[in-house]
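#structure-requests
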Amino acid sequence: MKKLVYLSIFTLAIVSCKKNDYVTFSGKVTNQNSDSLVVSNPQVGFKKVIKLDETGAFKDTMKVENGFFSVFDGKEYATVYLENGDNINMSLNAKEFDESITFTGKGAEESNFLAKSALNQEAFFKDQTMFTLPKEEFKSKIDAFVTDFNSRLTGSSLDTAFVSAQKRNIEGLQKFVDRKYEETNYIATVLAKGNDSPKFANYENFKGGETSLDDLKGKYVYIDLWATWCQPCKNEIPFLQKVEEQFHDKNIEFVSISLDSQEDYFEWKEMVEAKNLGGTQLYAGDDKTFVDAYKVSGIPRFILLDAEGKIVDANAPRPSSPKLVELLNTLSL
């Protein structure tokens, strides 16, 4: 009989030690923005809506593919790290989202690390003047941020897969920040007001022939870099047409340069004709020298040059902004 009792206890111990194949996620949200939380990971097609009760409390279980998930409260997002077997409790004041979010329970350490990192990163990038610092000062600031991040990783019992992912993230962030610093300084020096503009040459003109920037010398030039697939670009067209009409008798040329690929070439031609687009309509084709020289990372992008081909504004106001007309009215057109 004793053997049977011992065997039962041993079996019970094995069962009780077995890791659950789901996550228990509970907690409380105060000053909530909605009546639910959405936990998701689009990369693996996971989405779960968890209802909050009248006090903001919640509890649910989820079977997940271990990794990173977003928690959305109807207004803001947090990133959490979930593994089956975790039992995590989240506390959140939605009015102070990043500052208040904390996690307790089994598997909470990774999510607390992410919450602290998000808070640190927000504070770090708040000071955009760092991108104008002398290079050594900038490097010292970045190195201190990265060292602090890595020290939090090293002195912990975090999941090894999580640590590896965070190391890749901080390396990627450092490369991004270094690249942004170089671009900011390039814009502040090479593309500074009064400098000679980079040039484009022999772009196809919709009306026939080819046009180069040098052909427009003697006139102010307002350049619109756009593409037919870019909806924000197309949204600016009616505003651009109004500005063109307002300044049609002034010494300024409105130049739209299409960055469409070769496969969209005929769509460009059709759109110019269908919408009766004015100004000088050019097609850049495969030539990227002009957009590369201006460090164009997104379109639409607008550039204003003076009659001598010098830069007035390398990132000029959009046609939809009242600041464009204000700027043009200050010039001797």
